[in-house]
Design brief:
Structural class: mainly alpha
Number of strands: 0
Low-confidence stretches: none
Helix content: over 70%
Mean pLDDT: 88
Number of helices: 2
Strand content: under 5%
Largest sheet: none
Radius of gyration: 34 Å
Length: 141
């Protein structure tokens, strides 16, 4: 009984954690999409005009710095996307594990119900045998 309660507790905790992770994953995906869009828009403007974002002037060196910064931002964005993918993979694995736990819980519940039914049947048979034994003893006396 304690194992069932612990499994149920673990199941509930896992379900809550999966739900939290899914919400967090969705929020991060939305935020990443917005960041990517803003990044692309800003990058298009800066590259097209070779404008220094600080001075507001067209400067070759500033354009090179912007290009370097763009590459760094793209690298960071790629890292973030990789982290998001890893997060998604982990969430998927946790969902699979949760489904396995739910299946195990269902199987255990069915097995318990079967055992209780068999116990009840056995008790009824034992009572019938005791009654028959008593009747046989009464006939012998």
């Amino acid at each position: 009984m304690a194992a069932k309660e612990e499994l149920q507790k673990n199941l509930t905790e896992t379900q809550q954690r999966v739900a939290e992770l899914e919400l967090q994953f969705n929020d991060l995906e939305k935020e990443n999409a917005e960041v990517q869009k803003n990044l692309k828009d800003c990058l298009v403007l800066l590259v097209a005009e070779k404008i220094d974002p600080v001075l507001g002037e067209r400067v070759g060196e500033a354009a090179q710095q912007n290009e370097d910064q763009r590459k760094e931002v793209m690298s960071v964005s790629a890292d973030l996307l990789n982290e998001l993918k890893a997060f998604g993979d982990i969430a998927s694995k946790q969902r699979t594990r949760l489904e396995e736990i739910q299946t195990t819980m269902t199987d255990l519940t069915k097995a318990r119900e079967l055992m209780l039914q068999e116990r009840e049947n056995f008790s009824l048979e034992a009572a019938e045998m005791e009654k028959a034994l008593s009747e046989a003893e009464a006939l012998l006396l």
